[in-house]
Amino acid sequence: MRKVLSLLVLFALFMVLGACGGATEPKEKVDEAEKDSVAKKHKIGILAPAVTHGWVAAVAYHAEARAKELADEIDYQVQTSTNAEEMTSQLDDLMTWGAESIVAFPQWEGMEVPIQTALDAGIEVVNFDIEIDAEGVYRVSGDNEDMGIQGANYIVDKIGKEGNVVVLEVPSSGSVSELRKKGFVETMEKIAPDMNLLTYATKFTREDGLKDFADILTSNDKIDAVFSMDDETSIGVLQAISEAGRTDIQVVTGGGGMQEYFQMMPENEDIWIQSALYSPAMVKDAVDVAFKLLNDEEAEEVTVIPTTVVDRDNHEEFLDDKSPY
């Protein structure tokens, strides 16, 4: 009987120890699952220009905001640069870090080769805004050419089919300026072939808009409208007009969707102030395309965000006190 009891006790102990030993197995499995979960996080790099004006600052802001929203599923790095050489170096750093996809805003010429190198290495690249010659690159942008088309239609609607129109191009911005100018000039040739177009180079800053347009006003006695491609530039243009006391200019266009510029629209009844909405928030779509590609989901090779015209008649619909731009 004692032997039987002893055997029963030993058997019970064996079962208890077995149960205790088995309890560690699920924990190990959980730890392994957690490691796998971390390991499966995709790496997305974001390359943006350093702040040159508010629109560019808002691009980096919105890109990082979207990356933060995806932080449970991705690791990300945001790098900003002041020229093509620095962006190329940062691209190399992201490749070394192990980026599987890169969202790039290559605002300068000379980024074709480094981006092609990344693509050839198997990295998905989604360009924001800028169109460059690289095989396999995806792109998300506003409709730059349509911004020019809308600008031409707007000016003709306000001043008629004849007059002097200053075209402010920005050669340093690459395809952005090229496409906006193309849309404007080609449309103007169709709908108002007698319009006199005066082309000058400037930059996407209010300081350059002020300085350059002050010189333009000095050399041109009669200007009916200004095709400016950017809200910041346009603010400088409007300041130059005000300081010169000129009353001949009836229209100033813009582009970008700047809140300060929107608020100026109803303040000046003598000038139609227009903006072709080109929101920096659309960079979130570029981050989403990068994320889709890493998850083997389908994505459009080119995503174009439609143009919306804003002026004093509808500007209140676009006011947003939370906007960083």
UniProtKB/TrEMBL annotation:
Gene3D superfamilies: 3.40.50.2300. Keywords: Signal. GO terms for molecular function: carbohydrate binding. PROSITE patterns: PROKAR_LIPOPROTEIN. The keyword Cytoplasm does not apply. Residues 44-297 form the Periplasmic binding protein domain. InterPro entries: Peripla_BP_I (IPR028082), SBP_2_dom (IPR025997). Residues 1-21 form the signal peptide. The keyword Protein biosynthesis does not apply. It holds the Pfam family Peripla_BP_4. It is found in: Cell envelope. It comes from the Bacteria. GO terms for cellular component: cell envelope. Its main location: other. Belongs to the bacterial solute-binding protein 2 family. This is Periplasmic binding protein/LacI transcriptional regulator.
